[in-house]
From TrEMBL:
GO terms for cellular component: plasma membrane. The chain crosses the membrane at residues 7-25, 79-99, 111-129, 163-194, 206-225, 275-295, 307-330, 336-353, 360-378. This is Glycosyltransferase family 39 protein. Keywords: Cell membrane, Glycosyltransferase, Membrane, Transferase, Transmembrane, Transmembrane helix. GO terms for molecular function: pentosyltransferase activity. The keyword Ion transport does not apply. It is a multi-pass membrane protein.
Length: 561
Protein backbone atom coordinates (compact mmCIF):
# COMPACT_ATOMS: atom_id res chain seq x y z
CA UNK A 1 0.00 0.00 0.00
CA UNK A 2 1.30 3.47 -0.90
CA UNK A 3 2.59 5.30 2.20
CA UNK A 4 0.82 8.53 1.25
CA UNK A 5 -2.46 6.64 0.94
CA UNK A 6 -1.88 5.11 4.37
CA UNK A 7 -1.45 8.56 5.92
CA UNK A 8 -4.58 9.83 4.15
CA UNK A 9 -6.65 6.85 5.31
CA UNK A 10 -5.37 7.23 8.86
CA UNK A 11 -6.34 10.91 8.91
CA UNK A 12 -9.84 10.02 7.66
CA UNK A 13 -10.15 7.32 10.34
CA UNK A 14 -9.06 9.80 13.03
CA UNK A 15 -11.63 12.34 11.80
CA UNK A 16 -14.34 9.65 11.91
CA UNK A 17 -13.27 8.72 15.45
CA UNK A 18 -13.42 12.34 16.59
CA UNK A 19 -16.87 12.92 15.07
CA UNK A 20 -18.35 9.78 16.63
CA UNK A 21 -16.97 10.78 20.03
CA UNK A 22 -18.12 14.40 19.81
CA UNK A 23 -21.66 13.49 18.78
CA UNK A 24 -24.08 14.01 21.69
CA UNK A 25 -21.23 14.45 24.17
CA UNK A 26 -23.26 16.96 26.22
CA UNK A 27 -25.56 14.72 28.24
CA UNK A 28 -28.70 16.58 29.43
CA UNK A 29 -29.09 14.19 32.37
CA UNK A 30 -25.69 15.21 33.75
CA UNK A 31 -23.14 12.98 35.38
CA UNK A 32 -24.19 9.80 37.13
CA UNK A 33 -22.78 8.72 40.49
CA UNK A 34 -19.41 7.26 39.42
CA UNK A 35 -18.71 10.25 37.19
CA UNK A 36 -19.82 12.67 39.88
CA UNK A 37 -17.62 10.98 42.46
CA UNK A 38 -14.64 11.16 40.09
CA UNK A 39 -15.22 14.88 39.57
CA UNK A 40 -15.80 15.59 43.27
CA UNK A 41 -12.49 13.98 44.27
CA UNK A 42 -10.58 15.81 41.55
CA UNK A 43 -12.33 19.01 42.66
CA UNK A 44 -11.07 18.78 46.26
CA UNK A 45 -8.69 21.42 47.57
CA UNK A 46 -5.09 20.65 46.69
CA UNK A 47 -3.06 19.15 48.29
CA UNK A 48 -4.51 18.12 51.70
CA UNK A 49 -8.16 17.35 50.91
CA UNK A 50 -7.27 16.07 47.45
CA UNK A 51 -4.73 13.51 48.69
CA UNK A 52 -7.10 12.41 51.45
CA UNK A 53 -9.94 11.93 48.95
CA UNK A 54 -7.73 9.96 46.56
CA UNK A 55 -6.47 7.73 49.38
CA UNK A 56 -10.00 6.95 50.58
CA UNK A 57 -11.30 5.97 47.14
CA UNK A 58 -11.23 2.49 45.61
CA UNK A 59 -9.53 3.54 42.37
CA UNK A 60 -5.85 4.06 41.68
CA UNK A 61 -4.71 7.70 41.89
CA UNK A 62 -3.32 8.65 38.46
CA UNK A 63 -6.60 9.58 36.81
CA UNK A 64 -7.47 12.05 39.59
CA UNK A 65 -4.19 13.86 38.99
CA UNK A 66 -4.89 13.89 35.26
CA UNK A 67 -8.41 15.26 35.80
CA UNK A 68 -7.16 17.80 38.35
CA UNK A 69 -4.73 19.18 35.78
CA UNK A 70 -7.40 19.14 33.08
CA UNK A 71 -9.81 21.09 35.28
CA UNK A 72 -7.10 23.63 36.08
CA UNK A 73 -6.60 24.27 32.36
CA UNK A 74 -10.15 23.85 30.99
CA UNK A 75 -12.50 24.25 33.99
CA UNK A 76 -15.09 21.70 35.04
CA UNK A 77 -18.20 22.04 32.91
CA UNK A 78 -19.74 18.68 32.03
CA UNK A 79 -18.65 18.99 28.40
CA UNK A 80 -15.09 19.86 29.36
CA UNK A 81 -14.93 16.90 31.76
CA UNK A 82 -16.19 14.55 29.06
CA UNK A 83 -13.66 15.90 26.56
CA UNK A 84 -10.96 14.87 29.07
CA UNK A 85 -11.92 11.30 28.15
CA UNK A 86 -12.41 12.04 24.45
CA UNK A 87 -8.80 13.15 23.98
CA UNK A 88 -7.17 9.87 25.10
CA UNK A 89 -9.91 8.04 23.19
CA UNK A 90 -8.81 9.68 19.95
CA UNK A 91 -5.10 9.24 20.64
CA UNK A 92 -5.79 5.53 21.17
CA UNK A 93 -6.77 5.22 17.51
CA UNK A 94 -3.22 6.20 16.56
CA UNK A 95 -1.54 4.02 19.21
CA UNK A 96 -3.47 0.98 17.97
CA UNK A 97 -2.27 1.83 14.47
CA UNK A 98 1.28 1.66 15.83
CA UNK A 99 0.63 -1.62 17.68
CA UNK A 100 -0.52 -3.37 14.52
CA UNK A 101 2.38 -1.92 12.55
CA UNK A 102 4.83 -3.31 15.12
CA UNK A 103 3.12 -6.72 15.04
CA UNK A 104 3.27 -7.05 11.24
CA UNK A 105 6.40 -5.17 10.31
CA UNK A 106 6.56 -6.57 6.77
CA UNK A 107 3.75 -8.03 4.65
CA UNK A 108 0.23 -6.72 5.37
CA UNK A 109 1.65 -4.25 7.93
CA UNK A 110 0.00 -1.10 6.54
CA UNK A 111 -3.38 -2.79 6.04
CA UNK A 112 -3.28 -4.35 9.49
CA UNK A 113 -2.47 -0.97 11.04
CA UNK A 114 -5.39 0.73 9.31
CA UNK A 115 -7.73 -2.11 10.33
CA UNK A 116 -6.70 -1.75 13.99
CA UNK A 117 -7.16 2.03 13.86
CA UNK A 118 -10.57 1.69 12.18
CA UNK A 119 -11.86 -0.90 14.67
CA UNK A 120 -10.74 1.38 17.52
CA UNK A 121 -12.38 4.40 15.91
CA UNK A 122 -15.83 2.79 15.55
CA UNK A 123 -15.77 0.66 18.71
CA UNK A 124 -19.03 1.37 20.52
CA UNK A 125 -17.42 0.40 23.81
CA UNK A 126 -14.59 2.92 23.40
CA UNK A 127 -16.91 5.61 22.07
CA UNK A 128 -19.07 5.25 25.17
CA UNK A 129 -16.15 5.65 27.55
CA UNK A 130 -14.71 8.50 25.48
CA UNK A 131 -17.83 10.41 26.62
CA UNK A 132 -17.71 9.22 30.25
CA UNK A 133 -15.97 11.13 33.07
CA UNK A 134 -14.21 8.00 34.25
CA UNK A 135 -10.85 6.26 34.15
CA UNK A 136 -11.44 3.84 31.28
CA UNK A 137 -10.60 5.89 28.20
CA UNK A 138 -7.21 6.87 29.62
CA UNK A 139 -6.71 3.30 30.86
CA UNK A 140 -7.21 1.95 27.35
CA UNK A 141 -4.74 4.48 25.95
CA UNK A 142 -2.04 3.52 28.45
CA UNK A 143 -2.77 -0.20 27.94
CA UNK A 144 -2.38 0.23 24.17
CA UNK A 145 0.97 1.95 24.71
CA UNK A 146 2.03 -0.89 27.02
CA UNK A 147 1.08 -3.34 24.25
CA UNK A 148 3.06 -1.31 21.69
CA UNK A 149 6.25 -1.33 23.75
CA UNK A 150 5.71 -4.96 24.70
CA UNK A 151 5.74 -5.83 21.00
CA UNK A 152 8.81 -3.66 20.48
CA UNK A 153 10.58 -5.43 23.35
CA UNK A 154 9.50 -8.75 21.90
CA UNK A 155 11.12 -7.81 18.60
CA UNK A 156 14.03 -5.77 19.98
CA UNK A 157 14.67 -5.79 23.77
CA UNK A 158 16.86 -2.68 23.75
CA UNK A 159 17.38 -0.48 26.79
CA UNK A 160 15.12 2.23 25.34
CA UNK A 161 12.24 -0.14 24.65
CA UNK A 162 12.41 -1.91 28.00
CA UNK A 163 12.60 1.33 29.97
CA UNK A 164 9.62 2.79 28.11
CA UNK A 165 7.69 -0.44 28.68
CA UNK A 166 8.49 -0.22 32.38
CA UNK A 167 7.39 3.42 32.54
CA UNK A 168 4.00 2.85 30.93
CA UNK A 169 3.43 -0.37 32.89
CA UNK A 170 3.89 1.61 36.10
CA UNK A 171 1.52 4.29 34.80
CA UNK A 172 -1.07 1.59 34.06
CA UNK A 173 -0.84 0.26 37.60
CA UNK A 174 -1.31 3.79 38.96
CA UNK A 175 -4.25 4.38 36.59
CA UNK A 176 -6.35 1.23 37.14
CA UNK A 177 -6.68 -0.58 40.44
CA UNK A 178 -6.47 -4.07 38.94
CA UNK A 179 -3.97 -3.04 36.27
CA UNK A 180 -1.25 -4.79 38.26
CA UNK A 181 -2.80 -8.15 37.29
CA UNK A 182 -2.32 -7.40 33.60
CA UNK A 183 1.17 -5.97 34.10
CA UNK A 184 2.25 -8.99 36.16
CA UNK A 185 1.19 -11.54 33.54
CA UNK A 186 2.40 -9.37 30.68
CA UNK A 187 5.87 -9.15 32.21
CA UNK A 188 6.06 -12.87 32.97
CA UNK A 189 4.80 -13.84 29.50
CA UNK A 190 7.30 -11.55 27.80
CA UNK A 191 10.19 -13.21 29.61
CA UNK A 192 8.82 -16.67 28.89
CA UNK A 193 8.08 -16.29 25.17
CA UNK A 194 10.75 -13.97 23.84
CA UNK A 195 13.26 -15.74 21.66
CA UNK A 196 16.13 -16.98 23.82
CA UNK A 197 18.73 -15.30 21.69
CA UNK A 198 16.96 -11.98 22.11
CA UNK A 199 16.67 -12.09 25.87
CA UNK A 200 18.71 -9.58 27.81
CA UNK A 201 19.07 -8.99 31.52
CA UNK A 202 17.82 -5.41 31.23
CA UNK A 203 14.19 -6.58 30.84
CA UNK A 204 14.26 -8.44 34.14
CA UNK A 205 16.10 -5.55 35.78
CA UNK A 206 13.50 -3.10 34.50
CA UNK A 207 10.66 -5.23 35.82
CA UNK A 208 12.32 -5.17 39.23
CA UNK A 209 12.67 -1.38 38.92
CA UNK A 210 8.96 -1.16 38.05
CA UNK A 211 8.06 -3.16 41.15
CA UNK A 212 10.07 -0.75 43.28
CA UNK A 213 8.31 2.24 41.70
CA UNK A 214 4.93 0.67 42.50
CA UNK A 215 5.72 0.04 46.17
CA UNK A 216 3.89 3.23 47.28
CA UNK A 217 0.66 1.61 46.03
CA UNK A 218 1.02 -1.48 48.23
CA UNK A 219 -0.71 -0.01 51.35
CA UNK A 220 -3.51 1.31 49.12
CA UNK A 221 -4.05 -2.08 47.44
CA UNK A 222 -3.88 -3.96 50.73
CA UNK A 223 -6.46 -1.71 52.33
CA UNK A 224 -8.67 -1.97 49.29
CA UNK A 225 -8.71 -5.77 49.09
CA UNK A 226 -8.98 -6.13 52.86
CA UNK A 227 -12.00 -3.82 53.03
CA UNK A 228 -15.30 -5.59 52.25
CA UNK A 229 -16.99 -2.35 51.27
CA UNK A 230 -15.49 -2.39 47.79
CA UNK A 231 -15.16 -6.08 46.96
CA UNK A 232 -18.31 -7.59 48.41
CA UNK A 233 -20.47 -7.92 45.27
CA UNK A 234 -23.13 -6.29 47.41
CA UNK A 235 -24.87 -4.84 44.36
CA UNK A 236 -24.16 -7.10 41.34
CA UNK A 237 -24.00 -10.90 41.73
CA UNK A 238 -21.99 -12.95 39.24
CA UNK A 239 -23.72 -14.75 36.37
CA UNK A 240 -22.20 -16.75 33.53
CA UNK A 241 -24.11 -14.61 31.05
CA UNK A 242 -21.66 -11.81 31.83
CA UNK A 243 -18.98 -13.76 29.94
CA UNK A 244 -21.04 -13.67 26.75
CA UNK A 245 -21.97 -10.03 27.22
CA UNK A 246 -18.24 -9.30 27.59
CA UNK A 247 -17.62 -10.28 23.97
CA UNK A 248 -20.73 -8.60 22.56
CA UNK A 249 -19.77 -5.40 24.41
CA UNK A 250 -16.30 -5.39 22.86
CA UNK A 251 -17.09 -6.59 19.35
CA UNK A 252 -20.50 -5.04 18.70
CA UNK A 253 -22.13 -1.63 19.25
CA UNK A 254 -24.70 -3.17 21.64
CA UNK A 255 -23.56 -2.51 25.23
CA UNK A 256 -25.11 -4.62 27.98
CA UNK A 257 -22.47 -5.12 30.70
CA UNK A 258 -21.53 -1.51 31.41
CA UNK A 259 -22.87 -1.30 34.97
CA UNK A 260 -24.70 -4.61 35.37
CA UNK A 261 -25.60 -7.12 32.67
CA UNK A 262 -29.09 -8.58 32.18
CA UNK A 263 -29.55 -11.86 34.07
CA UNK A 264 -29.80 -14.04 30.97
CA UNK A 265 -28.06 -13.93 27.60
CA UNK A 266 -30.66 -16.23 26.07
CA UNK A 267 -33.42 -13.80 26.99
CA UNK A 268 -31.69 -11.23 24.81
CA UNK A 269 -31.89 -13.67 21.87
CA UNK A 270 -35.38 -14.98 22.59
CA UNK A 271 -37.61 -12.05 23.51
CA UNK A 272 -41.01 -13.27 24.74
CA UNK A 273 -40.58 -16.65 23.00
CA UNK A 274 -39.71 -15.00 19.67
CA UNK A 275 -36.34 -14.24 18.16
CA UNK A 276 -34.92 -10.82 18.94
CA UNK A 277 -33.78 -10.05 15.41
CA UNK A 278 -32.20 -6.74 16.38
CA UNK A 279 -29.92 -8.30 18.98
CA UNK A 280 -28.97 -11.13 16.63
CA UNK A 281 -28.10 -8.76 13.77
CA UNK A 282 -26.35 -5.97 15.64
CA UNK A 283 -24.82 -7.86 18.60
CA UNK A 284 -24.23 -11.46 17.53
CA UNK A 285 -23.26 -11.02 13.87
CA UNK A 286 -20.43 -8.47 14.49
CA UNK A 287 -19.24 -10.55 17.46
CA UNK A 288 -19.12 -13.77 15.45
CA UNK A 289 -17.19 -11.98 12.71
CA UNK A 290 -14.58 -10.75 15.17
CA UNK A 291 -14.30 -14.09 16.98
CA UNK A 292 -13.77 -15.79 13.63
CA UNK A 293 -11.03 -13.28 12.81
CA UNK A 294 -9.38 -13.98 16.17
CA UNK A 295 -9.24 -17.66 15.27
CA UNK A 296 -7.80 -16.75 11.87
CA UNK A 297 -5.08 -14.64 13.51
CA UNK A 298 -3.84 -17.62 15.54
CA UNK A 299 -3.50 -19.86 12.50
CA UNK A 300 -0.11 -18.45 11.53
CA UNK A 301 1.43 -20.08 14.62
CA UNK A 302 3.72 -17.17 15.47
CA UNK A 303 5.41 -17.22 18.86
CA UNK A 304 4.12 -13.72 19.59
CA UNK A 305 0.57 -15.10 19.41
CA UNK A 306 1.33 -17.52 22.24
CA UNK A 307 2.60 -14.59 24.28
CA UNK A 308 -0.55 -12.55 23.63
CA UNK A 309 -2.84 -15.51 24.29
CA UNK A 310 -1.08 -16.23 27.59
CA UNK A 311 -1.46 -12.63 28.76
CA UNK A 312 -5.16 -12.59 27.82
CA UNK A 313 -5.99 -15.98 29.34
CA UNK A 314 -4.09 -15.44 32.59
CA UNK A 315 -5.55 -11.98 33.21
CA UNK A 316 -9.08 -12.96 32.19
CA UNK A 317 -9.13 -16.11 34.33
CA UNK A 318 -7.72 -14.28 37.35
CA UNK A 319 -10.49 -11.67 37.25
CA UNK A 320 -13.08 -14.38 36.55
CA UNK A 321 -11.98 -16.41 39.58
CA UNK A 322 -12.00 -13.29 41.74
CA UNK A 323 -15.58 -12.62 40.54
CA UNK A 324 -16.65 -16.18 41.31
CA UNK A 325 -15.38 -15.74 44.88
CA UNK A 326 -17.19 -12.41 45.24
CA UNK A 327 -14.05 -10.26 45.31
CA UNK A 328 -14.89 -8.15 42.25
CA UNK A 329 -17.80 -7.40 39.95
CA UNK A 330 -17.41 -8.97 36.51
CA UNK A 331 -17.93 -6.00 34.20
CA UNK A 332 -16.51 -5.56 30.72
CA UNK A 333 -14.74 -2.32 31.62
CA UNK A 334 -12.74 -3.96 34.41
CA UNK A 335 -10.87 -5.96 31.78
CA UNK A 336 -10.27 -3.04 29.44
CA UNK A 337 -6.48 -3.67 29.50
CA UNK A 338 -7.12 -6.77 27.38
CA UNK A 339 -9.08 -4.93 24.70
CA UNK A 340 -6.01 -3.67 22.77
CA UNK A 341 -4.83 -7.28 22.40
CA UNK A 342 -8.20 -8.36 21.01
CA UNK A 343 -8.42 -5.41 18.59
CA UNK A 344 -4.89 -6.15 17.38
CA UNK A 345 -5.60 -9.82 16.74
CA UNK A 346 -8.90 -9.08 14.97
CA UNK A 347 -7.01 -6.67 12.71
CA UNK A 348 -4.36 -9.34 12.09
CA UNK A 349 -7.00 -11.90 11.14
CA UNK A 350 -8.66 -9.40 8.84
CA UNK A 351 -5.55 -8.23 7.02
CA UNK A 352 -3.99 -11.69 6.56
CA UNK A 353 -7.10 -13.30 5.11
CA UNK A 354 -6.27 -14.67 1.67
CA UNK A 355 -9.74 -14.58 0.12
CA UNK A 356 -9.96 -10.95 -0.89
CA UNK A 357 -13.65 -11.02 -1.77
CA UNK A 358 -14.63 -12.66 1.50
CA UNK A 359 -12.43 -10.20 3.38
CA UNK A 360 -14.25 -7.27 1.77
CA UNK A 361 -17.67 -8.79 2.55
CA UNK A 362 -16.81 -9.30 6.24
CA UNK A 363 -15.36 -5.80 6.53
CA UNK A 364 -18.44 -4.29 4.90
CA UNK A 365 -20.93 -6.20 7.06
CA UNK A 366 -19.08 -5.40 10.29
CA UNK A 367 -18.64 -1.72 9.44
CA UNK A 368 -22.18 -1.16 8.16
CA UNK A 369 -23.85 -2.89 11.10
CA UNK A 370 -21.70 -1.09 13.66
CA UNK A 371 -22.03 2.40 12.15
CA UNK A 372 -25.74 1.98 11.34
CA UNK A 373 -26.50 1.02 14.94
CA UNK A 374 -24.42 3.89 16.34
CA UNK A 375 -26.10 6.43 14.07
CA UNK A 376 -29.68 5.17 14.13
CA UNK A 377 -30.40 3.28 17.36
CA UNK A 378 -31.75 5.07 20.42
CA UNK A 379 -29.66 2.72 22.57
CA UNK A 380 -26.42 3.32 20.67
CA UNK A 381 -23.29 4.20 22.67
CA UNK A 382 -23.64 7.90 21.89
CA UNK A 383 -27.32 7.96 22.87
CA UNK A 384 -27.31 5.72 25.92
CA UNK A 385 -28.90 7.78 28.67
CA UNK A 386 -27.23 7.90 32.06
CA UNK A 387 -30.52 7.18 33.83
CA UNK A 388 -28.87 7.83 37.18
CA UNK A 389 -27.73 11.27 36.01
CA UNK A 390 -28.00 13.59 38.99
CA UNK A 391 -29.09 16.62 37.03
CA UNK A 392 -32.37 14.74 36.47
CA UNK A 393 -33.17 14.95 40.18
CA UNK A 394 -32.43 18.67 40.49
CA UNK A 395 -34.47 19.44 37.35
CA UNK A 396 -37.38 17.33 38.64
CA UNK A 397 -37.39 19.05 42.03
CA UNK A 398 -37.38 22.42 40.32
CA UNK A 399 -40.25 21.29 38.07
CA UNK A 400 -42.14 20.28 41.22
CA UNK A 401 -41.71 23.89 42.46
CA UNK A 402 -39.57 23.08 45.48
CA UNK A 403 -39.20 26.01 47.91
CA UNK A 404 -36.35 26.94 50.22
CA UNK A 405 -38.25 25.78 53.33
CA UNK A 406 -39.18 22.37 51.85
CA UNK A 407 -37.28 19.29 52.96
CA UNK A 408 -35.61 16.53 50.95
CA UNK A 409 -34.78 12.98 52.00
CA UNK A 410 -32.32 11.28 49.65
CA UNK A 411 -32.20 7.50 49.65
CA UNK A 412 -28.92 5.82 48.59
CA UNK A 413 -26.87 8.97 47.76
CA UNK A 414 -25.94 11.84 50.13
CA UNK A 415 -27.12 15.40 49.30
CA UNK A 416 -23.61 16.36 48.14
CA UNK A 417 -24.13 14.23 45.00
CA UNK A 418 -26.58 16.82 43.64
CA UNK A 419 -24.93 20.11 44.54
CA UNK A 420 -23.15 20.64 41.20
CA UNK A 421 -26.47 21.13 39.39
CA UNK A 422 -28.21 23.26 42.01
CA UNK A 423 -28.65 26.83 40.80
CA UNK A 424 -29.63 28.28 44.22
CA UNK A 425 -27.37 27.42 47.15
CA UNK A 426 -30.16 27.44 49.75
CA UNK A 427 -32.68 25.51 47.64
CA UNK A 428 -31.95 22.17 49.32
CA UNK A 429 -30.88 23.54 52.67
CA UNK A 430 -33.16 21.16 54.58
CA UNK A 431 -31.80 17.98 53.02
CA UNK A 432 -30.67 14.75 54.62
CA UNK A 433 -30.18 11.17 53.52
CA UNK A 434 -30.27 7.51 54.36
CA UNK A 435 -27.45 6.64 52.02
CA UNK A 436 -25.11 3.75 51.27
CA UNK A 437 -22.57 5.18 53.72
CA UNK A 438 -24.67 6.07 56.77
CA UNK A 439 -27.49 3.48 56.75
CA UNK A 440 -26.00 1.43 59.66
CA UNK A 441 -26.24 4.46 61.96
CA UNK A 442 -29.89 5.07 61.05
CA UNK A 443 -31.55 1.68 60.58
CA UNK A 444 -29.59 -0.76 62.80
CA UNK A 445 -31.08 -0.81 66.35
CA UNK A 446 -27.78 -0.85 68.28
CA UNK A 447 -24.31 0.58 67.70
CA UNK A 448 -23.07 -0.32 64.25
CA UNK A 449 -20.68 0.93 61.60
CA UNK A 450 -20.32 0.73 57.84
CA UNK A 451 -17.39 -1.68 57.92
CA UNK A 452 -19.31 -4.25 59.94
CA UNK A 453 -22.43 -3.80 57.80
CA UNK A 454 -20.56 -4.50 54.58
CA UNK A 455 -18.70 -7.43 56.09
CA UNK A 456 -21.53 -9.25 57.87
CA UNK A 457 -24.65 -7.42 56.70
CA UNK A 458 -26.64 -10.46 55.60
CA UNK A 459 -26.32 -11.95 59.10
CA UNK A 460 -26.70 -8.78 61.15
CA UNK A 461 -29.63 -7.24 59.29
CA UNK A 462 -31.92 -10.19 58.71
CA UNK A 463 -34.14 -9.38 61.68
CA UNK A 464 -34.02 -5.67 60.86
CA UNK A 465 -35.52 -6.32 57.42
CA UNK A 466 -38.50 -7.98 59.14
CA UNK A 467 -38.99 -5.15 61.65
CA UNK A 468 -42.30 -3.33 61.25
CA UNK A 469 -41.47 -0.63 63.78
CA UNK A 470 -37.84 0.43 63.51
CA UNK A 471 -37.50 2.86 66.40
CA UNK A 472 -34.13 4.16 65.30
CA UNK A 473 -35.36 5.01 61.80
CA UNK A 474 -38.55 6.50 63.21
CA UNK A 475 -36.51 8.77 65.49
CA UNK A 476 -34.44 9.87 62.50
CA UNK A 477 -37.51 10.70 60.42
CA UNK A 478 -39.32 12.46 63.28
CA UNK A 479 -36.25 14.36 64.40
CA UNK A 480 -35.18 15.60 60.97
CA UNK A 481 -38.52 15.97 59.23
CA UNK A 482 -41.98 15.45 60.73
CA UNK A 483 -41.45 17.36 64.00
CA UNK A 484 -39.78 20.32 62.27
CA UNK A 485 -42.27 20.82 59.47
CA UNK A 486 -44.97 23.48 59.64
CA UNK A 487 -48.36 23.38 57.96
CA UNK A 488 -47.89 23.61 54.20
CA UNK A 489 -44.26 22.48 54.29
CA UNK A 490 -43.44 19.66 51.92
CA UNK A 491 -41.16 16.63 52.03
CA UNK A 492 -39.60 15.17 48.87
CA UNK A 493 -38.28 11.60 49.15
CA UNK A 494 -35.84 10.81 46.33
CA UNK A 495 -35.48 7.11 45.53
CA UNK A 496 -33.09 5.38 43.11
CA UNK A 497 -35.28 2.70 41.51
CA UNK A 498 -32.31 0.68 40.26
CA UNK A 499 -31.47 -0.49 43.78
CA UNK A 500 -34.88 -0.60 45.53
CA UNK A 501 -36.75 -3.40 43.82
CA UNK A 502 -38.92 -5.01 46.50
CA UNK A 503 -42.08 -3.83 48.19
CA UNK A 504 -42.70 -4.75 51.83
CA UNK A 505 -44.36 -8.11 51.14
CA UNK A 506 -41.81 -9.22 48.55
CA UNK A 507 -38.94 -8.19 50.82
CA UNK A 508 -40.37 -10.20 53.69
CA UNK A 509 -40.76 -13.29 51.48
CA UNK A 510 -37.12 -13.02 50.36
CA UNK A 511 -35.82 -12.67 53.90
CA UNK A 512 -37.81 -15.73 55.05
CA UNK A 513 -36.54 -17.81 52.13
CA UNK A 514 -32.92 -18.75 52.94
CA UNK A 515 -31.94 -19.49 49.34
CA UNK A 516 -33.45 -16.26 47.99
CA UNK A 517 -31.96 -14.26 50.85
CA UNK A 518 -28.50 -15.60 50.12
CA UNK A 519 -28.86 -14.86 46.40
CA UNK A 520 -30.16 -11.26 46.52
CA UNK A 521 -27.44 -8.59 46.92
CA UNK A 522 -27.36 -6.89 50.31
CA UNK A 523 -27.66 -3.47 48.67
CA UNK A 524 -31.08 -4.26 47.20
CA UNK A 525 -32.36 -5.40 50.58
CA UNK A 526 -31.10 -2.29 52.39
CA UNK A 527 -32.42 0.09 49.73
CA UNK A 528 -35.82 -1.59 49.53
CA UNK A 529 -36.24 -1.56 53.30
CA UNK A 530 -35.26 2.08 53.75
CA UNK A 531 -37.55 3.10 50.89
CA UNK A 532 -40.51 1.05 52.17
CA UNK A 533 -40.17 2.26 55.75
CA UNK A 534 -39.65 5.93 54.85
CA UNK A 535 -42.68 5.98 52.54
CA UNK A 536 -44.88 4.13 55.04
CA UNK A 537 -44.01 6.45 57.95
CA UNK A 538 -44.37 9.54 55.78
CA UNK A 539 -47.86 8.46 54.71
CA UNK A 540 -48.76 7.99 58.40
CA UNK A 541 -47.58 11.47 59.40
CA UNK A 542 -48.04 13.58 56.27
CA UNK A 543 -50.43 13.87 53.34
CA UNK A 544 -49.24 12.01 50.24
CA UNK A 545 -49.45 14.23 47.12
CA UNK A 546 -48.15 11.90 44.40
CA UNK A 547 -44.85 11.12 42.73
CA UNK A 548 -42.60 12.21 39.85
CA UNK A 549 -40.61 9.70 37.78
CA UNK A 550 -37.53 10.60 35.76
CA UNK A 551 -34.85 8.23 34.48
CA UNK A 552 -33.94 5.85 37.30
CA UNK A 553 -35.37 8.20 39.93
CA UNK A 554 -38.70 8.30 41.72
CA UNK A 555 -39.57 11.38 43.80
CA UNK A 556 -42.43 11.07 46.31
CA UNK A 557 -44.14 14.25 47.51
CA UNK A 558 -45.69 14.71 50.97
CA UNK A 559 -47.20 17.78 52.66
CA UNK A 560 -47.79 18.73 56.31
CA UNK A 561 -51.50 19.43 56.84
Amino acid sequence: MNKNNTVLYLILILILGVLLRLWNIDKPEGMWNDEYLTWSIANLKFPTDFFKGVANNCHAPLHYFYLKGWMFLFRDSDVSLRVSSLVPGVISIFTMFLCAKEYLVKKHGELCSLCAAFITAISGFLIYFSQEVRIYSLTFLIASIVLYYSLKVFNNPSNKNTWLLTLFSVLLIFEHTIGFVFVLFNSCALIAFMQRKKKENNLTNNIIAGIVLCLPLVPFLYGLFAHPRYFSQWWAPFSWSKLLFYFTDLFSPVLKNISNAPPSFLQQIFDNASLNIGFIIFALVPSFICIGLLVKAFQNGRRVNLYLLTVFAATFLTVLIAALFGKIIFLTKYLIELYPILILLVAVGWSTMELKGFKIVLATVFSVLTLFYIVVSYTSPVRLVRNEGQRLVVSALEDMKIKSNDRVLYLYYPPSRFEKYTREENLFFYANSIDKYNFPYIMYPTKSDTYEAFKNGKTLYRDVFLTKNNQKMSNFLYGNYYSKMNKGDRLFIVELKDVAFFDEIRLENIVLDSKAYKRVPFLYLVSSYTRNYSIKKSKENLSYKGHYETGSWMIYLFEKV
